[in-house]
From TrEMBL:
Identification of the protein by name: ATP-dependent DNA ligase
Record organism: Kribbella antibiotica
Keyword Ligase assigned: yes
Domain (DNA ligase D polymerase): residue spans on this chain: 33-295
PANTHER family reported in the protein's UniProt record: BIFUNCTIONAL NON-HOMOLOGOUS END JOINING PROTEIN LIGD
GO molecular function list: ligase activity
Swiss-Prot/TrEMBL keywords: Ligase
């Protein structure tokens, strides 16, 4: 992109895209521009796409930057190009009163770049893929996610301790956990599974969260009541419900600075002593990829059955 250019027409994987307002600052406190957002998403797309592919995408957009208003978007926006994949899917219990939405599905690099040009900073997906089944309101999940959310007085350091305990508990069920930062204050722990009912995965996640909260009552809560969270880590198991979504690996966060939800390995989890150690900006994530490769490259390779 030409330095200082407001808009360019470019080709991405054979598709012509018009990129606009490139010099607009989307992260005012750090001066991070829309051009830099697009460039980051273009560079990371190959690692991001396995986590977006075949999943209905909810976008959180900041068209005027992260100090201005944002909005969630499920439906494909007006003017969506005909080469962008969309899928009309049920949305039971939607706050809009509609019973379905036309979702964008990001299966290719050009769609990721197009989304970045819309200032879709955060990319959220469910734990199930389109086409795994036709179960309507109870689609088949291929992931379980545990969202480790530190309450007041706790940090991601305490989340690391809980993640290690949760890893040990998962091991008793012959399941493997894959950690990443949330890009905010906490962590996410993914567990690849053989496709099964979202209701079943929700029940199982709740069971494990409550089991760990009972074993570590001073450090962990599985209860959503905020008054119970000070100095504890809340294990949010509810994101396994079919209607819920989680920020995708390698997605940006719409925050004061362009932090990234970054895959980390268990050695890093065990060694963390300060929250600053697990805050990653786009250039740091790209450097990590250059040095270590994709930490989540094998996430979907060995799904395990849930215990009966």
């Amino acid at each position: 992109m030409a330095a200082g250019a407001q808009q360019v027409t470019t080709e991405v994987d054979g598709q012509t895209l018009k990129l606009t307002n490139l010099s607009k600052v989307l992260y005012p406190q750090s001066g991070f521009t829309k051009a830099e957002v697009i460039d980051y998403y273009h560079q990371v797309a190959a690692l991001l796409l396995p986590h977006l592919s075949d999943r209905p995408l909810t976008r959180k957009r900041w068209p005027d930057g992260t100090e201005a208003a944002y909005f969630f978007e499920k439906n494909a926006p007006r003017g969506t190009p005909d080469w962008v994949r969309t899928e009309t899917l049920p949305t039971p219990g939607s706050s809009t009163g509609r019973d379905e939405a036309e979702f964008v599905v990001a299966d290719d690099v050009q769609t990721v770049v197009w989304l970045a040009n819309l200032a879709a900073l955060e990319l959220h997906v469910p734990q199930w893929r389109i086409g795994l089944s036709e179960h309507g309101s109870d689609p088949q999940a291929d992931l379980i996610v545990f969202d480790l959310d530190p309450g007041p007085g706790a940090t991601i350091v305490e989340c690391c301790d809980v993640a290690l305990a949760l890893r040990e508990l998962l091991g008793h069920y012959r399941l493997e956990g894959w950690p990443k930062t949330s890009g905010n204050k906490g962590m996410h722990l993914y567990v690849p599974i053989e496709p099964t009912s979202s209701r079943r995965t929700s029940d199982f996640a709740k069971q494990l969260a409550e089991q760990l909260a009972a074993a570590l009552p001073e450090d962990v809560t599985a209860n959503m009541t905020k008054a119970l969270r000070p100095n504890k880590v809340f294990i949010d198991w509810s994101q396994n419900a079919s209607a819920k979504t989680t920020l995708a690996p390698y997605s940006l966060r719409g925050a004061e600075e362009p932090r990234v939800s970054t895959p980390i390995d268990w050695d890093e989890v065990a060694a963390t002593t300060s929250p600053e150690e697990l805050k990653f900006l786009p250039h740091e994530v790209l450097a990590r990829i250059e040095e270590y490769g994709d930490v989540l490259a094998d996430l979907y390779d060995d799904p395990r059955p849930l215990p009966s």
